[in-house]
Amino acid sequence: MSTPQAIPSFFLYGEAPRIVGDRFLHLEALDDRSRPSNWNIRPHSHANLSHLFYITDGGGRMQADDLVLHFTSPCLLLVPARRVHAFTFEAETQGTVLTIADGYQQEIMRRDPDLARLFSAPDCIEVANPDRFNRHFGELQRELAWKAPGHRAAVEGLLISMLVAALRLRHAATAGLPSELGAQASLVACFRSLVEEHFRTNLGIPGYADLLSATPKRLRAACLKIASQTPLAILQDRRLLEAKRLMLYSNMTLAEIGYYLGFSDPAYFSRFFRNLSGVSARTFRAEGEDWAATRDAA
Asked: CB-based contacts of 59: which residues, under 8 Å, 6+ apart?
């Protein structure tokens, strides 16, 4: 009998998971991992690392969970931590990959909650003026390569400047969407982070509120204001997303997926999936396999 396989989780692509420091920051050429993989990066995730890709030449397709984005240079690609993602790059596509630890992101976000919006979801952002990002990435690469006085402050200054530039581009591209500012946005960002840690357990909303030092009523108000969802809906959506990922990218049976997600009864998991997705788990998996076969043949 084969052993059920979940979605691969790497440190950097192809490297075994390991603990990273709260200020981990890494910059490398896109070519370093894409060329040896024949320009195809298979589905995987990172437990506590997010990516900002800067594509300077070429293009391709990014898949993040069930979202497929086609991109062409120059552009930025955003991949939040824990999202299953894969790439099919055009041959000889060039660019740079910035990887940042959750701890570093959260430290910066505590100082400016606006930046929580940047990695809220996978995205592709067109870059109309590449000179600015050419300069940002070039200066950061040089600063990371040496240890002159003020090195740490210089790296952080360049990083924040780059993230702000990306945030403003994204904001301009999505003008008119509700703003996520202030204490409520910070509370929802922290709640989402806790959901990532505990969604496979039976921790209820009062338990999450306790961990956040907030009342359930305050948490509910913040989630409705910022995300237009209740805390329970956010939690259920996260469990549903993981179920879909496992159906598309693992060889677990439906019962094994249910147990993995904390459901004690496969029938209860089946009802949960149907109620939230509108289709049965079996139907979703069958349609997903058909879609994957079409994708791989393309």
From this structure: 70, 71, 72, 73, 89, 90, 93
